[in-house]
Amino acid sequence: xxxxxxxxxxxxxxxxxxxxxxxxxxxxxxxxxxxxxxxxxxxxxxxxxxxxxxxxxxxxxxxxxxxxxxxxxxxxxxxxxxxxxxxxxxxxxxxxxxxxxxxxxxxxxxxxxxxxxxxxxxxxxxxxxxxxxxxxxxxxxxxxxxxxxxxxxxxxxxxxxxxxxxxxxxxxxxxxxxxxxxxxxxxxxxxxxxxxxxxxxxxxxxxxxxxxxxxxxxxxxxxxxxxxxxxxxxxxxxxxxxxxxxxxxxxxxxxxxxxxxxxxxxxxxxxxxxxxxxxxxxxxxxxxxxxxxxxxxxxxxxxxxxxxxxxxxxxxxxxxxxxxxxxxxxxxxxxxxxxxxxxxxxxxxxxx
Length: 352
Fold this sequence. Notes:
Helix content is 34%, strand content 14%.
């Protein structure tokens, strides 16, 4: 038999530098490590009810494609985060992996040059470099973990992570979430199903055995303890919203058995904004209104924001405008800054 039995549709298999090699080249600093530990613990305190006065806000670009724009955004957000820290715990979105419904740019790790060359080795180093720099500037980072290999390379620099709507139902991602060291938010399904996120919370709190890699890149059996720091993220679905009081109450009931004091985050984008970035502010105001009126199960919200509003279409070889999203449309910085201040002021006015 001359025909091969496997890899018939594979062009190339190329070794990636090990997590240990990349971490040795780009080591975490004491300052960044302390910030990650501090922020993870602060989020845990909010999740488990030790801190009932603040909201977590995950805010930043839908995806990062330009390091310089990301650093400029981080510098602006840092000033705002410091000024509002008694009311809002602000963590910057630093998303490097993008799940696609069909095809499209898969994110900075997959295609860092934005030219279809998919130089993942460069992308992984670039993602770690960006995380190191933003943490160095004093701003904690959040991301969506998509590829189960990626956490070995970057998870030490992440303070909060999401499992996205397309992967919440995946056993692989639930297993991964059971072992990561930061709090995890599970989004409801793309068609709006809440139960898949509830099931993910249950699965991720239990121990698992699964295949992965170790620090040297060797295929390994991973054994986890289970992750106690989980919550759901309501993002709407199937063209419908789920941020209103009725849906939040249903979500409370659905996860009541998980023993999390504040188990609900609201994604103000995606179907909750009817995929109109300008409606994110409306959603955020409603979320904070519910929190003001005593809906203490709400632990935070998510906003997609960039230096400039809207989005642009990425095409190979086409010049891109600075600070404008190439994936989902985002709020601009001016509106974001104003909105964050407004939300913080509303929390101060929260009835006793």
